[in-house]
C-alpha cells in the first residue's frame, strides 16, 4: 500500500485563491490593501529563497510587499530600528523577521520589539502567551499549516493520539498547544531526539509530525500501520534537501505530507492568512 498524499501545494494554492477573494472584498470596501513586511538579515540562501517566495505569494493575492534586507553584520540596533519603522508604517499590516538570525544578534530581544498586533508569525511572547491561554491571536504559521492540512484532507484530530518530534519554538511547542485546544481536541506527546523510547512513542500515534531536523529520523518500523505522517524537517545536504521521514514510510503510512510539497507550502499560505486576518480586524 502507498500512502495518500497530504498535498500541501494544492491546498496552499486553494487557500491563496480564497485569500485573494477576501483581499478584493476589503479593497472594494475602501480599505487599504494589506501589506506584509519582511526583515531579512544576511545572505543565507535558504532564508533568501523563503523571503522571495513570501513576496511572490503576496503578489498573487493582492498583498503589498515591504522588504527590508540588512547585511549579515547588521548590529542589534540596526535590526531594532528596522522593526521600529515597520511598527510605525501604516502600510504594513503585519511583518516577520526571517529566522534564524545571525548568531551575534539576540533573536529573543528582536522578536520582543515586534508590535504584537503586527506579528504575522505569531511568535511574539504576547501572542505565544495568548496561545497558551486559548485567547484569539495570530498563530505560528507552520503549526497552523499542519492543522489546516489535516483538516482539509478530513484526517480526524478529535481524540487522535499525535506524536510531535521536535520541541522548537517555531514548530513543536506551539503545535502541541494548538492541537490540544478544545477545538482540535487531540492528545499530544511532545518528543525530542533525546526522548527515551522514541520509537515506542511514535508507534503509539495515529498522527506523527517530525520537526527535529534529523534526516531520516522516522523509519517505517517505528510507525503504526495506517498512521498519518507529516514531514516538517528540512536538512540541506550536498545532494539536496532531506526530510526527517525516511522515504520508505510511504509504504506503512495511510497519509503522508512529504518534504517538499507538504507542510512547507502551507507555512507560506498561513503567513498570508495571518496578514489578511489582521487587515480584516483593522478594517472592522
Ligand atoms: N520568521 C520565520 N522564520 C522561519 C520560519 C517561519 O515560519 N517564520 N520557518 C522556517 C522557514 N520557512 C518560512 O519562513 C519556510 C520553510 C520551508 C518552506 C517550504 O516551502 N519548503 C519547501 C521545500 C524547501 C525548498 O524548496 O527550499 C517544501 O516543504 O515544499 C517554506 C517556508 C524557518 N524560518
UniProtKB/TrEMBL annotation:
<keyword id="KW-0368">Histidine biosynthesis</keyword>
<dbReference type="GO" id="GO:0006164">
    <property type="term" value="P:purine nucleotide biosynthetic process"/>
</dbReference>
<dbReference type="Pfam" id="PF02882">
    <property type="entry name" value="THF_DHG_CYH_C"/>
</dbReference>
<comment type="similarity">
    <text>Belongs to the tetrahydrofolate dehydrogenase/cyclohydrolase family.</text>
</comment>
<keyword id="KW-0511">Multifunctional enzyme</keyword>
<feature type="binding site">
    <location>
        <position position="234"/>
    </location>
    <ligand>
        <name>NADP(+)</name>
    </ligand>
</feature>
<protein>
    <recommendedName>
        <fullName>Bifunctional protein FolD</fullName>
        <ecNumber>1.5.1.5</ecNumber>
        <ecNumber>3.5.4.9</ecNumber>
    </recommendedName>
</protein>
<keyword id="KW-0028">Amino-acid biosynthesis</keyword>
<dbReference type="InterPro" id="IPR036291">
    <property type="entry name" value="NAD(P)-bd_dom_sf"/>
</dbReference>
<feature type="domain" description="Tetrahydrofolate dehydrogenase/cyclohydrolase catalytic">
    <location>
        <begin position="6"/>
        <end position="121"/>
    </location>
</feature>
<keyword id="KW-0658">Purine biosynthesis</keyword>
<dbReference type="GO" id="GO:0005829">
    <property type="term" value="C:cytosol"/>
</dbReference>
<comment type="subunit">
    <text>Homodimer.</text>
</comment>
<comment type="pathway">
    <text>One-carbon metabolism; tetrahydrofolate interconversion.</text>
</comment>
<keyword id="KW-0378">Hydrolase</keyword>
<dbReference type="GO" id="GO:0004488">
    <property type="term" value="F:methylenetetrahydrofolate dehydrogenase (NADP+) activity"/>
</dbReference>
<keyword id="KW-0521">NADP</keyword>
<dbReference type="InterPro" id="IPR000672">
    <property type="entry name" value="THF_DH/CycHdrlase"/>
</dbReference>
<keyword id="KW-0560">Oxidoreductase</keyword>
<keyword id="KW-0486">Methionine biosynthesis</keyword>
<dbReference type="GO" id="GO:0035999">
    <property type="term" value="P:tetrahydrofolate interconversion"/>
</dbReference>
<dbReference type="GO" id="GO:0009086">
    <property type="term" value="P:methionine biosynthetic process"/>
</dbReference>
<dbReference type="GO" id="GO:0000105">
    <property type="term" value="P:L-histidine biosynthetic process"/>
</dbReference>
<comment type="function">
    <text>Catalyzes the oxidation of 5,10-methylenetetrahydrofolate to 5,10-methenyltetrahydrofolate and then the hydrolysis of 5,10-methenyltetrahydrofolate to 10-formyltetrahydrofolate.</text>
</comment>
<dbReference type="GO" id="GO:0004477">
    <property type="term" value="F:methenyltetrahydrofolate cyclohydrolase activity"/>
</dbReference>
<dbReference type="Pfam" id="PF00763">
    <property type="entry name" value="THF_DHG_CYH"/>
</dbReference>
<dbReference type="InterPro" id="IPR020630">
    <property type="entry name" value="THF_DH/CycHdrlase_cat_dom"/>
</dbReference>
<dbReference type="InterPro" id="IPR020631">
    <property type="entry name" value="THF_DH/CycHdrlase_NAD-bd_dom"/>
</dbReference>
<dbReference type="InterPro" id="IPR046346">
    <property type="entry name" value="Aminoacid_DH-like_N_sf"/>
</dbReference>
<feature type="domain" description="Tetrahydrofolate dehydrogenase/cyclohydrolase NAD(P)-binding">
    <location>
        <begin position="140"/>
        <end position="282"/>
    </location>
</feature>
<keyword id="KW-0554">One-carbon metabolism</keyword>
<feature type="binding site">
    <location>
        <begin position="166"/>
        <end position="168"/>
    </location>
    <ligand>
        <name>NADP(+)</name>
    </ligand>
</feature>
Amino acid at each position: 500500500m502507498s500512502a495518500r498524499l497530504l498535498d500541501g501545494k494544492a491546498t496552499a494554492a486553494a487557500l491563496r485563491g480564497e485569500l485573494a477573494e477576501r483581499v478584493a472584498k476589503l479593497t472594494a470596501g475602501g480599505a487599504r490593501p494589506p501589506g506584509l513586511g519582511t526583515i531579512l538579515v544576511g545572505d543565507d540562501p535558504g532564508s533568501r529563497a523563503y523571503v522571495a517566495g513570501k513576496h511572490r505569494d503576496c503578489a498573487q493575492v493582492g498583498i503589498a510587499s515591504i522588504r527590508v534586507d540588512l547585511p549579515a553584520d547588521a548590529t542589534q540596533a540596526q535590526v531594532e530600528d528596522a522593526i521600529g519603522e515597520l511598527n510605525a508604517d501604516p502600510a504594513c499590516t503585519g511583518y516577520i523577521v526571517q529566522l534564524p538570525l545571525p548568531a551575534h544578534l539576540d533573536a529573543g530581544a528582536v522578536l520582543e520589539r515586534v508590535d504584537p498586533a503586527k506579528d504575522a508569525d505569531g511568535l511574539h511572547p504576547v501572542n505565544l502567551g495568548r496561545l497558551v491561554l486559548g485567547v484569539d491571536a495570530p498563530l505560528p504559521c507552520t503549526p497552523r499549516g499542519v492543522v489546516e492540512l489535516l483538516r482539509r484532507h478530513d484526517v480526524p484530530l478529535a481524540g487522535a493520539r499525535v506524536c510531535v518530534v521536535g520541541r522548537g519554538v517555531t514548530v513543536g511547542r506551539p503545535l502541541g498547544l494548538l492541537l490540544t485546544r478544545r477545538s482540535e481536541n487531540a492528545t499530544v506527546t511532545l518528543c525530542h531526539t533525546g526522548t527515551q523510547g522514541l520509537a515506542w512513542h511514535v508507534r503509539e500515534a495515529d498522527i506523527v509530525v517530525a520537526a527535529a531536523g534529523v534526516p531520516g529520523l522516522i523509519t517505517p518500523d517505528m510507525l503504526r500501520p495506517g498512521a498519518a505522517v507529516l514531514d516538517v524537517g528540512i536538512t540541506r545536504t550536498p545532494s539536496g534537501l532531506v526530510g526527517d521521514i525516511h522515504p520508505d514510510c510511504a509504504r506503512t503510512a495511510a497519509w503522508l505530507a512529504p518534504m517538499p510539497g507538504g507542510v512547507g507550502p502551507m507555512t507560506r499560505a498561513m503567513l498570508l492568512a495571518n496578514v489578511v486576518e489582521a487587515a480584516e480586524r483593522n478594517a472592522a
